[in-house]
Write the structure tokens for this entry.
Amino acid sequence: MNEARERLQMTDAEIVGHIARYGYRVSVAQIAFTSEPVDDFREARARKWYRAGVFRVNEPGLLVIEDAQPRPGQRTRDIVVISLGPTRIVMGVEIKPGAPPLASGSSIQRYAPTMEWAAAEKPVAAKSKLKQRA
């Protein structure tokens, strides 16, 4: 599986500097990497997010959204999505309590609908529905 971060030919400092151009100071650990198109975030904001927030910048390959709340119960926050070729960098992903550190997203990792990095879910054993004979 090709990792989105591995496809991005930028150093961590360059990535953090790119986000800083929009007025935000973050560390690489606070940035998600994904292959989702910017349009997926635009569509999720319009159709799935609890509070859509306000566009500060809405251009092809770039979104800066202020005061968004993708899901009820999440804090309101600013979200930045920047397309850098085959990879999108995303600032503003909510990290659930107990979740592992934000890791490099894979090509199938989706943030747009929920904007959250979930805690690892433990598999639930299926209950057997066998009839017992008397």
About this structure: Residues 38-47 form the longest helix (10 residues). The chain has a mean pLDDT of 85. Residues 4-117 form one domain.
